[in-house]
Amino acid sequence: MADRCVLILSRRGDGEATEAASLLRRIGVPVHRLDADGLAGVEAVLAPDGTLTLDGHRFAPTVTWLRHFSLRAAPDDSPAGPVGGRMVYRDAWTVLARQLALASPAAIGAADPGQLVQHAQARALGVRTPRGVVTTDPAGAAGLLPAERYVLKVLDRHFVEPEPGRLAWYLPQVLHRSRLAGLPGLPRGTPVVLQEYVEHEAEFRVYFAGGELHAFEVAKAHPRDIWTRPDQVRVRHVRPPAAVAAAVRALAGAAGLVYGAFDVLSDRGEAVFLEMNTHGDWQWFERKAGVDLVTRAVVRTVRDLHWSAVGDPRPAAVNLLAFLGAGAGSGARAPAHPPPLS
To answer: Which of 163, 195, 262, 334 has the highest Cβ tally under 10 A?
Structure first.
């Protein structure tokens, strides 16, 4: 009979997945991990009954957690052959990872709605979002969106990986109308998001994990500071305002999320939803604030999903503090730079 275990699909540099996998194993939850930058020589068989064999380990995934599994992270070690064949190799691994997640009894990160879908859902729920447009001509589109200041950002992630391990950043910018020429380094004609800048009294990063909410108030001068001047960013763990908590719960419910990292502003008591990341990292925020609450919530979430899939009758309440050792909650010093995969 095949083992039943959690499958994590990510990459070698994913510290959150490394810590979560270690803690899960220590509380008796088996984990198998496959990294996009560690596929060389990997043999895989997916049987008709849904069991998966990876390098001789035969198991049935109970929870498939899709995080930073991107073939952009993989070195060019695909089998020799025509360029088209190597492209098929990369596409096939990417599709397999996504299909494994979608076919699992439980999945985390498989549903990843982009900014346009997220904002449409928010508006349908009555959650305020910044007024914005998607445009290939920010300066010309500003006439459709009268404002004093704007936020200009890319439509997808804030970084790309031209070579494995080397990131090129395209960070959000706050700009006056006279400077709306586009994001530096992007070819003319690239679709970007142009939003009004929303004045606010507070900004929050809120993590939703298995129904739990954990919020961090983030104080910074510019949107890009988390990446470019992390030492100037102040982070503290807080109880989210009622409006922010309600907005996050509504959005997570509408998207059917198990996990998500939400960026939300508070403007005169009203929640203003910016964006959500289903793969958002949390260790940097935890270490800045000196807590480990998100780590524990994520581990509890994966554990409970696994137990549910295997029909384990054990109660959900398990104290993980003993397994965290000297982790983030022990007051570990924050790193000089945030993790690149946030």
So the answer is: 262
